[in-house]
Specification:
By secondary structure, the protein is mainly alpha-helical. The protein contains 6 helices and no strands. It has one domain. The radius of gyration is 22 Å and the shape is elongated.
């Protein structure tokens, strides 16, 4: 039992960085009509399937010890890696939003002048009173943190 746990822990330690790697964008491939955007869950499943296929091919004994030899072993692998990748992406997104909110709160300041300047900078012309300036700031900074 402990041997299996050690093998699982070792595999996850190696698989987590690989699961987080972002594949390079496909260049030169035309987009198929009606499939221009892939849902995040679908992309995580595709990436996980590729990683499981490589693991099964390159180290069959490790794959068998982790997921078994039954016909559903590949599905177990894909499910586990896709779930891990989705959770990690979700945590990163939440962290970016928390950091962005703190940065916006700091930028907004506490004086009337700093708050007015903040509203002028972030509020769109459709909201002259700047009611949604804080939300616009958080959105802008969170997107910048997750994309860069």
């Amino acid at each position: 039992m402990t041997r299996t746990l050690i093998v699982v822990a070792a595999f996850l330690a190696l698989a987590v960085p690989a699961a987080l790697a972002v594949p390079p964008p496909d260049q030169g491939k035309p987009e198929s009509p009606g499939n221009s955007a892939t849902a995040p869950g679908q992309q995580a499943t595709k990436n996980a399937a590729k990683k499981c296929k490589d693991l099964r091919k390159n180290s069959a004994s490790s794959f068998a010890s982790l997921y078994g030899t039954k016909p559903n072993a590949f599905g177990k692998c894909v499910s586990a890696l896709a779930k891990l990748q989705s959770e990690t992406e979700s945590e990163a997104s939440e962290s970016a939003e928390d950091n962005a909110a703190k940065a916006c709160k700091k930028e907004r300041g506490t004086t009337a002048e700093s708050m007015a300047a903040f509203k002028t900078k972030y509020a769109p012309p459709t909201h002259p009173n700047g009611a949604n300036a804080f939300g616009k700031c958080v959105s802008k900074l969170a997107k910048a943190q997750t994309s860069g």
